Amino acid sequence: MSIPAVFDYHPAKTVDEALALLQQYGDEAKVLAGGHSLIPAMKLRLSQPEHLIDISKIQELAYIREENDVIAIGALTTYTQVEYSDLLRRVFPLMPECASHIADQQVRNRGTIGGSIAHADPSADMPGVILALKAELVIQGPNGKRTVSADEFILGTFETVLEPNELLVELLFPKPAAKTGSAYTKLSNRASHYAIAGCAAVLSLDSDNTCSAASVVVTGAAMQTARASATELALIGKQLTSETIAEAASHAAEGLELVGDIHGSPEYRRQMVSVMTRRAIEQALERA
């Protein structure tokens, strides 16, 4: 089956208009941003919303700007805008680096950062970067706005804290400390470019090059994008030698519910998580 089920289409021009439609149709509605995840699911009839609310034309949600000690990014900012942003390349090079690894140019031209996070696909690239950078996510609903941390936002596979009548509208990133480096590495499916196993790492160093902070997140290998807490603990307070890094990376898959499919067994993914984590940490260290 390659034709979606019948639905009503509602283009929204403002956030308030989109929220009013969500309030009206509730669980019967789906939000369309870039559409690269939702439309294929609808064609396969894995998703059959009765109402489709198109927010892609809401210009007020597409921006990247500096606000004091925070970088604010609108939820409808595209991967291409992220990839070529001079501001992000200067402050958060991890984000443009990650965006350049996502699918192909056509997808990057349409896909949005907020859409990816709200979809919460465990094989997607950007959710891992959002977690690694410890972003704050601004959610708007009928009762106003609320802010949650990236770690609180994703609950599971394709599951987030968003209520049916809410939208993710903005992402806020605190500027990094001095001597901070980051990297994103992944083993990708050559057909879809999704991550079979990937890692986003952010490291900060003290004046004596001791690791003062570490944020390490695993993508693709588990049932949800997840923080490698054991690896983070193994890095903080240490001089990051090749031995220290290898030992820390060996714990990256601990506590994760690893996936097994045609692309790799859980055991294979465990090994690849360790490899990708080690490479990401090494690159982040060089950049710090």
TrEMBL record:
<dbReference type="InterPro" id="IPR005107">
    <property type="entry name" value="CO_DH_flav_C"/>
</dbReference>
<dbReference type="GO" id="GO:0016491">
    <property type="term" value="F:oxidoreductase activity"/>
</dbReference>
<dbReference type="InterPro" id="IPR016166">
    <property type="entry name" value="FAD-bd_PCMH"/>
</dbReference>
<keyword id="KW-0274">FAD</keyword>
<keyword id="KW-0285">Flavoprotein</keyword>
<dbReference type="InterPro" id="IPR036683">
    <property type="entry name" value="CO_DH_flav_C_dom_sf"/>
</dbReference>
<keyword id="KW-0560">Oxidoreductase</keyword>
<dbReference type="InterPro" id="IPR002346">
    <property type="entry name" value="Mopterin_DH_FAD-bd"/>
</dbReference>
<dbReference type="InterPro" id="IPR051312">
    <property type="entry name" value="Diverse_Substr_Oxidored"/>
</dbReference>
<protein>
    <submittedName>
        <fullName>Molybdopterin dehydrogenase FAD-binding</fullName>
    </submittedName>
</protein>
<dbReference type="InterPro" id="IPR016167">
    <property type="entry name" value="FAD-bd_PCMH_sub1"/>
</dbReference>
<dbReference type="Pfam" id="PF03450">
    <property type="entry name" value="CO_deh_flav_C"/>
</dbReference>
<dbReference type="Pfam" id="PF00941">
    <property type="entry name" value="FAD_binding_5"/>
</dbReference>
<dbReference type="InterPro" id="IPR016169">
    <property type="entry name" value="FAD-bd_PCMH_sub2"/>
</dbReference>
<dbReference type="InterPro" id="IPR036318">
    <property type="entry name" value="FAD-bd_PCMH-like_sf"/>
</dbReference>
<feature type="domain" description="FAD-binding PCMH-type">
    <location>
        <begin position="2"/>
        <end position="178"/>
    </location>
</feature>
<dbReference type="GO" id="GO:0071949">
    <property type="term" value="F:FAD binding"/>
</dbReference>
